[in-house]
Amino acid sequence: xxxxxxxxxAKALFEVALEKNCLDQVGTDLxxxxxxxxxxxxxxxxxQHPTTAAEQKKEVFARIFAxxxxxxxxxxxxxxxxxRESIVQDAFAEYKRLVNEHKGIVExxxxxAFPLTATDRKKLVAAFEPIVGKKLDITEKVDSDxxxxxxxQVGDRLYDGSLRTKLNRFRERLSGNRVG
Length: 180
Fold this sequence. Notes:
180 residues, 4-stranded mixed β-sheet, elongated, cell membrane, hydrogen ion transport, membrane, CF(1)
């Protein structure tokens, strides 16, 4: 339910920001808000408490987020009025997705056993941008369990070139070829 509501709110904010030519500013603001809510659990608890009035929230938000774009400020005030602050993280994620879609960018989560070098990043982008037909925005994850290679997730597509997966496939082929 929250995700559907977050998408509606994010879409409305996206449309205003697009019309007012401030997509990046609003995106930066939303990221700051989402990070603050994530890193200060007491704020989230206080904001979501049933006795906390909308006006109190707006005053605190005005102090904490003093440099917000006017549209982001209105968005945050609207969330306070409607007791929807819990959707901030989801709204930010959806807003970012809408902006990327508008700009022809797709997010790719790249998992490697070791951090990527700048050269590795460039090679990865050069290899995958033609496949997906869009510019890549890479988020890196390091997971030593994959042993080596790379796993790239773009939307609902997964490209698994990890050494762990290759070894598992090899093991399956060997066990499948055993003579009883």
